[in-house]
From TrEMBL:
This is DUF4349 domain-containing protein. InterPro entries: DUF4349. Residues 296-319 are annotated as: Disordered. Residues 75-279 form the DUF4349 domain. Keywords: Membrane, Signal, Transmembrane, Transmembrane helix. It comes from the Bacteria. Residues 1-24 form the signal peptide. It holds the Pfam family DUF4349. The chain crosses the membrane at residues 266-288.
Length: 319
């Protein structure tokens, strides 16, 4: 029994030792071989880094895209300004100096000095650099009492881009045709290429001219400045339907009044021309009647019968 018990105890001890060794080996392998467990953590970390980098790049691309989507668009600025000044003529001179100093120009300037039947006034068409419109308007408002101010803008970015694209395409075509013209040797090819080149060049010049005009309107705002003397009320734009009817009626009466004045000016000339026309018509009629009378007399002389033959002459003929 003691031998059996000792043998059983030895077997149990051996099993316990082997079990402990296996646990130790597994723990050691888990620590000494990180390649089995570490790749997932490393992959997660790398994925997180890649995600951060991708997010950063997306944010940069989004910000860059925002800059591209909303650049400075091409716009035409236009407006009007009405001012009451003590001396409209002097104010017009000052306005010209303000605009010129800002880098602009005056396209039109009309001055109406004071007369017996009217007060002094002036009107100007100002071309102001678009980026300096607000600053120039602030200076212009100091010329007197501001009656009305109206400023607006029209987006022409699409037209500008369209013209630029068409100009680029035509310029490429012209360059290619010029090269073909230099390389052509056949007379028929030369004539055909030269004709097409002339046509394309004309189209290109036209588009370049349109682009320059549009660019000028974009670069320089157009402001209509009206200067009135004190006591003159600036004409207001109609705001309602009845205001429009009244304005149209007044315009009609003004047109009719101007028409009557024009007819009064033309009346002496019309009478003089009528007298000349009557005299010329009478002379022509007299000439026509004289010609007809002469033709009738010639026709009557031609149709008259000749003299009848005598008997003696007839007898001699029978003999």
């Amino acid at each position: 029994m003691r031998r059996i018990a000792a043998a059983a105890a030895g077997i149990l001890l051996t099993a316990l030792v082997l079990t402990g060794c296996s646990f130790s080996a597994s723990d050691t392998s888990a620590v000494s071989e990180p390649g089995v467990a570490m790749p997932e953590a490393m992959d997660d970390e790398m994925a997180a880094r890649d995600g951060d980098m991708a997010a950063g790049e997306f944010a940069e691309e989004s910000s860059a895209g925002a800059d591209v989507v909303e650049p400075d668009r091409a716009q035409i600025t236009h407006g009007s300004l009405s001012i009451t000044a003590d001396d409209p003529i002097a104010a017009a001179q000052r306005a010209t100096g303000i605009v010129t100093a800002a880098g602009g120009r005056v396209d039109s300037r009309n001055e109406y000095p004071e007369a017996d039947d009217r007060a002094a006034s002036a009107s100007l068409v100002l071309r102001i650099p678009s980026e300096r419109v607000d600053a120039v308007l602030t200076e212009l408002k100091e010329l007197g009492t501001v009656n009305t101010v109206s400023i607006g803008s029209t987006d022409v970015d699409m037209q500008v881009n369209d013209l630029d694209a068409r100009i680029g395409a035509l310029q490429t075509s012209v360059n290619r045709l010029t090269q073909l013209l230099a390389e052509a040797e056949d007379i028929a090819d030369l004539i055909t290429i030269e004709s097409e080149l002339t046509n394309r060049q004309a189209q290109l010049d036209s588009l370049v001219s349109q682009r320059a005009a549009l660019g000028d309107r974009v670069a320089y705002a157009t402001v209509y400045l009206e200067l009135y003397a004190p006591g003159i009320v600036a004409p207001a734009e109609p705001d309602t339907f009845w205001d429009g009817v009244v304005a149209g009626w007044n315009a009609l009466w003004g047109f009719l009044g101007g028409l009557m004045v024009a007819l009064g000016v033309l009346a002496p000339w019309l009478l003089f021309l009528a007298i000349i026309a009557a005299v010329a018509t009478g002379i022509v009629l007299l000439a026509v009647r004289g010609s007809r009378r002469s033709n009738r007399q010639q026709q009557a002389a031609t149709d008259a019968p000749g003299p009848a033959p005598t008997d003696g002459g007839a007898g001699d003929g029978r003999a």
